[in-house]
Amino acid sequence: xxxxxxxxxxxxxxxxxxxxxxxxxxxxxxxxxxxxxxxxxxxxxxxxxxxxxxxxxxxxxxxxxxxxxxxxxxxxxxxxxxxxxxxxxxxxxxxxxxxxxxxxxxxxxxxxxxxxxxxxxxxxxxxxxxxxxxxxxxxxxxxxxxxxxxxxxxxxxxxxxxxxxxxxxxxxxxxxxxxxxxxxxxxxxxxxxxxxxxxxxxxxxxxxxxxxxxxxxxxxxxxxxxxxxxxxxxxxxxxxxxxxxxx
Length: 247
Fold this sequence. Notes:
Elements: H1 5-38, H2 47-63, H3 75-80, E1 86-90, H4 98-101, E2 109-113, H5 121-133, E3 138-144, H6 148-159, H7 167-184, H8 191-209, H9 213-219, E4 224-230, E5 237-239
Parallel strand pairs: 1-2, 1-3, 3-4
Antiparallel strand pairs: 4-5
Helix pairs in contact: 6-7, 7-8
């Protein structure tokens, strides 16, 4: 009696174990597949998917239901590499905080900022680095409401004022947008808003035609360049990539 029971127990154990392994084969394969999927960098997505993620984040920001609150999460991974989902050329205005506006965490956005959010040589080189070496799928030129740089450009052109230091170079870069809107209706009450939109549009256009890197990546469908304006009062982002040319 005692000599039979261990044999039965062993057979029962082996059969039960085999059945368990067989039953778990599909879930295990799915787990490995999920692991491989999760190993892909977060920016291995289409330009449209990246834009959707930004706009969904902005909707959360406007509703005050931000999900990015633990900024310590992911520090170890970020120390090894960065995989931003978008590069943003934004104004240096202290009221504009793209990571908050789009509810993104550290490592999600590659930022280039300067007053007036226009493309200069250094900024262009930084954005080229982002798309060529960091594989950023989306580039956004982000203007904002009540922009002081645009206001100053309007005033300088109107009064023909000479500014000190390097400020004339900043105004010079925004003048084309101001002149375009003034040609249409110089007495329009919303010249600042119109010039802000036109400034974004002109700089989107410059990036789209910048050779060799931007133009090639766009032709290959690897990146998309869009323009947007942030309303400081409401927190909302308005896309203007299809804005009609004013020139």
